[in-house]
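ok posting inputs for the pyridoxal-5'-phosphate job
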Amino acid sequence: MTKYIENMLQQIGNTPLIKLTKVAKGIKANVFVKLELLNPSGSYKDRMAISMVEAAEKGLTWNGKKLSAHGVVCDASSGNTAPALAFVCAVKGYQAKIGIYKSLVRKDDIRLKITRIYGADVIPCPSPTDYMSASEWKKLSKEEKDLSWVIAGKKWAFDLEKNDPSVVWVDQIYNKYNYIGQMSMGYEIYEQLDGKIDAWGCSIGSGGTMLGVSLALKEKGVAPLTFGVVPFKTEVYIQFKKGVKEAGKNDFWFSNAHQKLVGLMNLEKWQTEKSIIEEMFDRGYPEKMFRITDEEARNMANRLAQEEGIWCGISSGANVLAALKIAKKLDYGQNVVTVIVDRRDRYLGEYLHETYVV
Ligand SMILES: Cc1ncc(COP(=O)(O)O)c(C=O)c1O
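and the output
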């Protein structure tokens, strides 16, 4: 009997769960990581990319626009979403158009190279001052200025979709098919641990993974302690009290900068809808949040490669550090789960401001 797969999309998901032994030495509770680096384009974003594209094929988009045969899928992303969308589009025969944030990535960024190799168009997004006056932009705080590049990218995608009938903007920050796609990971973890999950957490960009996995576990009747992770240098959708590294519910909140910039740049869609992060907060996830520096995260990512043989990216190191902090407070037989988000290859061109971006 022949055994083969029809295409690479069938390789998405069903990743192994591994118990950490070396880096978790001396800790009573078990620490498990989901090996999402084994997805075809190298990260867990393949799950949400196929989910959002297949929803678009059915017209399940924010404005009901349906992705036509050989149509164009667009979003602004300088993170793992870019290769994931490019990969899914390549196999399905769509053109991916990915806007990149000029301020956040270098032209030779490896994620962008991967994205191009999958056949996507990679286009530098306009600057914030293309959508708001330079004098208004100058008045913004440093953190608002950083975020303004992301909002400008989303405005670019919004305009592209509006002006071209063949383009569907999948908008990962607001699209519920992002977290619906990530739910499959939660079902798999549930099966892999027979439903015994005491704590679950991961780093938060769009919030799709945190919300999707938490909802899948909830659907199965499991309610672990949930913890989120944000790097020190990030696009600041989530704000922390100054100097706080480990926060309970009242010490973190959704950024005001976000709504302010959306208003200034007149990004209509984002003025009316609720983002995944807002929905995640409304539903009470996560209960705890950790801020991890890039250096701490990178050191742990290196240890994971050197001690456990897991060749993972920086945010995976941050995830494991947070999981270890939680596990230290738990007992024998209790299970803490987090994610190995992506492979290390995409960080090989590291530069000073390396961090993860959505
Ligand atoms: C490396 C990395 N870690 C973490 C995240 C956050 O994942 P999510 O967008 O599901 O919150 C991302 C998002 O792109 C990512 O690329």
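notes: Residues 8-38+185-347 form a domain with the Rossmann fold fold (CATH 3.40.50.1100). The chain has a mean pLDDT of 93.
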